[in-house]
């Protein structure tokens, strides 16, 4: 069974939840994962005929219930209190927003990140299938949840990849142990290459020199970052926006000409414009779609996709400049109205109203 020290680690979850709820709306994922660990314990408690195992399962359920309650209370410690939960619910339950925001769409597996996630899915399936004996329920549920959430929305890919890795690594090293102590821990297999590798890595990690190299790398990275990515006279790192994906040069033109009139740009570039102008310029739309709302997004899509009624929206907004990706059909539509091209490169086109 999991030792009491391991069980006490559960009580770090409310502390993590307190931080999580104040930095990202994905804190709901923590409660879903907690439910995944509750289910095997509940099933073992209801099905077990052994008084000892039933008692262990009952204690584990009580501990999980306490941790879940404390985590729920911690989630209300934020600047908005319960209104944050209402806001997240209304946002995620809005079908129009979920169907039109790219990060909530299913991933396109032609990208490198998506292909890496697909590889993780295949490895996880193979590891579970190759496991001697039936996969433990918590492993199976975690893997299914990670795969399903990753396939459902692109924004879930990083979290899903982490969860799949946590499932795969113990299976490959033959050190898989049930994360809930409602089920007995299996003895690790002997004479396994992965088992031997895991034991050596564990021994190495317990020694100071095992942590010395990563510590030095982190300190070196912080040192280089503190000097703008330079080490002496050599530039090792450069943090900048790519001209291929962002309108960096077009914004330079706006700054050089000191254009302060309203600018229309797609939501993908809204955050970038806020950064470049240091918040001094308002943008028409940016990635914070939950604050703009569905009605505003409908108007935005009508304008950006040149749907019927787009000219009226353009007149009401009183834009004098438009900064658009070259593939947008709004560019020739604006030029047809007499808008002139001020600048164009491989990333963007800057138009000015006559």
* Mean pLDDT, all residues: 83
Largest sheet: 4 strands, mixed
Structural class per helix/strand content? mainly alpha
Question: How many strands?
Answer: 6
Radius of gyration: 26 Å
Helix segment count?
17
Can you tell me about this structure?
By secondary structure, the protein is mainly alpha-helical. The protein has 17 helices and 6 strands. It has helices at 4-8, 13-21, 28-47, 51-74, 82-92, 95-100, 112-130, 137-152, 157-172, 193-205, 208-226, 248-256, 267-276, 289-292, 294-304, 310-317, 330-336, and strands spanning 230-231, 234-235, 263-264, 321-325, 340-344, 348-352. The longest helix is centred in the first third of the chain and has 24 residues, at 51-74. The model is unreliable at 1-5 and 177-191 (pLDDT under 50).
Write the layout of secondary structure elements.
Blueprint: H1 4-8, H2 13-21, H3 28-47, H4 51-74, H5 82-92, H6 95-100, H7 112-130, H8 137-152, H9 157-172, H10 193-205, H11 208-226, E1 230-231, E2 234-235, H12 248-256, E3 263-264, H13 267-276, H14 289-292, H15 294-304, H16 310-317, E4 321-325, H17 330-336, E5 340-344, E6 348-352
Parallel strand pairs: 3-4
Antiparallel strand pairs: 1-2, 4-6, 5-6
Helix pairs in contact: 2-4, 3-4, 3-8, 7-8, 7-9, 8-9, 15-16
Keywords, please?
disordered N terminus, 354 residues, mainly alpha, single chain, globular, four-stranded mixed β-sheet, two-stranded antiparallel sheet, 17 helices
Outline:
The protein has 354 residues and is mostly helical. It contains 17 helices and six strands. Helix content is 58%, strand content 6%.
